[in-house]
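This part of the workshop introduces the protein records we will be handling. Backbone structure tokens are a discrete shorthand for how the chain folds in space. Once this layout is familiar, the rest of the handout is easier to follow. The record below serves as our worked example for the rest of this section.
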Amino acid sequence: MLTLSQFQPHRDGQTLDTAIIQQALDQATEQQMSLKIEAGDYLTGALFIASHSRVEFEPGVRLIGSTDLSDYPEIKTRVAGVEMQWPAAILNIIDGEDVVIEGSGMIDGNGPIWWARYWGTDQKGGQRKVYDAKNLRWIVDYEVKRPREILLYRSKNCVISDLTLTHSGFWNCQVTYCDQVEIKQLTVKENNGPSTDGIDIDSSTNVHVHHCELSCGDDCIVVKSGRDGDGLRVNRPAEHIEIDHCVIHSGYGVTLGSEVSAGINDVHIHNMVFENTDCGFRMKSSADRGGTIQNVIAEHLEMRNVQFPFSWLMNWHTQYNHKTMAVTTEMPPMWAAVASQIPLDQQKTTVKDIVVRDVTATLAPDYAKESRAFDLKAFPEKPMQNITFEDCHLVASEFGHVVAVEGLLLKQVYVSVQRENDQQLEKFDTR
């Protein structure tokens, strides 16, 4: 086993160690040896891990992301469902095979610096304000480039375990075009910035996420398969996904979408705990999008103080999803890729064959937010189909909405609704 200390890194968290760490990674791979990274603070830009590598973080290791965007070379990648040139992540596995990254170290992305560039220090300014004023909400997330913390891209047979991810500039851990990936015992915390998703499973197959703990500013664990026209061009589904035994403390829970052009199939979500989250099990898309979400089982879920246990919105966040420009030869390639639409006759996402069972959702007596047991909304011309809820016990301030759902089966579903105006407790029993 090689150790990083053999290469004499600075380890002071202030002097860039990128070249030294990369040299150690490359030499360990060439010699077919594992690399151990000892305790210390390492300031770094993008690092690239080759096939057949094993990297072990000792307790007390902290990789600190550089705040200089030039330390993250632009690579061919996919961002929020669209292929483009974008900055590499802090840790990158690209076209890799048989890679293990493990140990109880931390990656700190220096997020507040990147978040301020996006939306200012008050979440009302920055480049977001500039683009909003030009009616360009749909492109600003791509234009304001921010590093991710871990990227697995076109790789297979990889394991990520035990790390702590915090203060990510953008998504924390992205898995795109991969097969046979296991992510376990990952902790994601202190991510209160824009688009700070926890774990994004994007057009990948046979992915298992388990025994993780997450606190995010956006979706905590999310499955995607490409955005609009560019996603349909690539046409790689996300399928055979298992998510289980995770604890989610804040954010938008477990989400399917909103980029679903190539479809999502065969997802099993089970034995999960949600505490003080905005959503529990979430699905989202928009009228401009297509694809199919099907064959999903969500079971054995415990939700405490969850505002929307089931938020399934097929026309979610229209300002973000609806483009305000047609594709032209004059616009930048990235803009054209984002603006690309799918054919009109393929728009509106199909949702079918979803089973939810054994769910308990409770609210503390002092819970202050308005909550909905159900928020299920599709389109009359393309309703959700074959949706089953079984053995669910839910407490909320209102029952919510069920719009355009065909073949809805509620079996042993109990909803207790507390209405503020008269403090009367209403119970809905669907036995």
